[in-house]
């Protein structure tokens, strides 16, 4: 949980309490301010979630090339496939025959 989400949640809770305190004496202005603060907190929390998701996606995409290399290295036929196709297309070998 990043700082934006914490601030958004705090604003949301503050807005809820402000709305509740305004409801007790019937103060409409405090109720409206509470709803506005609660909405601002929810928006700030959503911004924090989006920021966190973008960060997670960038971390995963940075790790992806090394994971793909290790996956392809474990399967030698996948690594050598481009060379085999190059030899096949140039007439140097037939599919099904191992050199």
* Mean pLDDT level: 78
N-to-C series of helices and strands: HHH
Output the radius of gyration. 29 Å
Described by its quaternary structure, the protein is single chain
- Fraction of residues in H or I helices: over 70%
- End-to-end span in angstroms? 55 Å
Secondary structure tally: strands: 0
Number of helices: 3
Ranges where pLDDT stays below 50 over 5 or more residues in a row are none
The main pleated sheet reads as: none
Protein structure class: mainly alpha
Total count of domains: 1
Shape: rod-shaped
Strand composition percent: under 5%
Considering the chains and any ligands shown, give keywords for the structure:
0% strand; 3 helices; 99 residues; mainly alpha; single chain
Describe the structure.
The chain is an all-alpha fold. Helices cover 83% and strands 0% of the residues. The protein has one domain (3-89). The protein is built from 3 helices and no strands. The mean pLDDT is 78.
Secondary structure layout plus pairing:
Layout: H1 3-23, H2 28-74, H3 76-89
Give a short overview.
The protein has helices at 3-23, 28-74, 76-89.
């Amino acid at each position: 949980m990043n700082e934006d989400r914490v601030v958004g949640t705090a604003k949301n809770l503050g807005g809820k309490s402000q709305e509740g305190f305004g409801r007790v004496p019937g103060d409409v202005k405090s109720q409206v301010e509470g709803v506005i603060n609660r909405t601002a907190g929810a928006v700030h929390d959503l911004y924090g979630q989006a920021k966190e998701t973008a960060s997670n996606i960038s971390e995963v995409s940075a790790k992806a090339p090394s994971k793909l290399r290790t996956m392809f290295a474990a399967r030698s036929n996948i690594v050598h496939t481009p060379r085999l196709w190059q030899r096949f297309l140039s007439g140097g070998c037939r599919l099904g025959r191992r050199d």
